[in-house]
UniProtKB/TrEMBL annotation:
Source organism per UniProt: Albidovulum marisflavi
Pfam families: MmgE_PrpD_C, MmgE_PrpD_N
Domain MmgE/PrpD N-terminal: 14-240
Family: Belongs to the PrpD family.
Domain MmgE/PrpD C-terminal span(s) in chain numbering: 267-432
Domain of life the protein comes from: Bacteria
Record's protein name: MmgE/PrpD family protein
Coiled-coil ranges (or none): none
Amino acid sequence: MRDEGSQAVLKKVQDFVLGLTPDQIPESAMERAALMLLDTLGICAAASPMEAGLIARRVATQLYSTSDSTTGARMLFDGRTVSLAGAAFAAATQLDNLDGHDGYNPTKGHIGVVALPTLAVLAQHIPGLAGRDALTALIVGYEIAGRAGIALHATVSDYHTSGAWNALGVAAMAARLRGQTPAMLREALGIAEYHGPRSQMMREIATPTMLHDGSGWGALAGMTAAILAEEGFTGAPAVTVEAQEVAPCWDDLGRFWQIEHQYVKPYPICRWAHAAIDAARELKLAHGFTHEDIEGLTIRSFNYAVELFPGVPDTTSKAQYALPFPVAVMLVHGEIGLQHISGPGLADPEVARLVGLTRLEATPRHEVRYPGGRWADVEIRLKDGRVLQSVDTHARGGPERPFERQAVLDKFMAFAVPALGFARAEAIRDATLALTGPGSRFDRLGSLIVDPL
């Protein structure tokens, strides 16, 4: 029998997921939800023509199609109809393979990568969905997934990918948007947790591939769990929700809004590398040297960061999970875009030269601040004999060094316009930001994000 504490946590979660109303959410959280949705849409659009996204959508048509109109949805930036689970899987997989979407330090992973696909595919069956109700559902996904992730990290020794816990956020959003009962939600959370991909994150770091952070399978597991629960399939309890030892992870549900504490990535690179990239960037801006002046480079960071790919990558996946490479790209080009981590960008000889000059060090003072922060420092030796040392630097874009609203809008346009054209990107931007307003509807945005590029 469940103890009273576990029952109280479950009841709190059920009431939050199924009963939260827009007027209970601070306006700052609503505004942030719209910005996170927009940021993720930009990455989703930019990732659509990439190989991983093409494969994921093709496989979704082969394996996850449906003849049931009540459980079908058009895939994002593609237009073809597959099952709800297939459409969520395809979008999350293509997003996961362009590592520029938001994240949350305490979870050591990502939520928006599944929350956007879940909202976008389920909203296709709710034509009158109000904009503020859509953002409320998105916030539910962030809040449930985030706490499930913290609970998982606190209770198991292995470092699992985001798919292991963001599946619960998908199940929660589906329960809300499909009008499920509290009992169905409980079973769905248990099913999603049990079948969520407990993928080994450090295996992917050691050998980067298209597996990335497991979020495609997290979306698939979470959506499938919700439909199974509707049909009477059982799977409760979810240990990350109902176990006595994780109760503190849920204490501030509805009071502390995790959506306001997500970081926005300025670069489509693993977050672990961002502090070093920013430290190098700031040294170059302060001292005005060029990449041709460099004869040596030392990067000091936390343990996981220095385990990122150390050489010159030959694939986009390795480039996104590298450390010396993106730092070198920043020093050579002053920016890091999709063009630098794919195609000819992987064969830049000057970037390769700097990678070869780089030494990596795991540093205790940076390690003790992880995962609450992502810190690094960089030392650059110049040919004229100068040695330039950065300060300890935290990655930009999160609560520690936040971006202004305009910076997020600029990032969206930078990623979306090459894929969509200016007019469509601008229309998506405006429709997304309008969701916070009274009388807004999600279908204005929904119609803009399903048609093919």
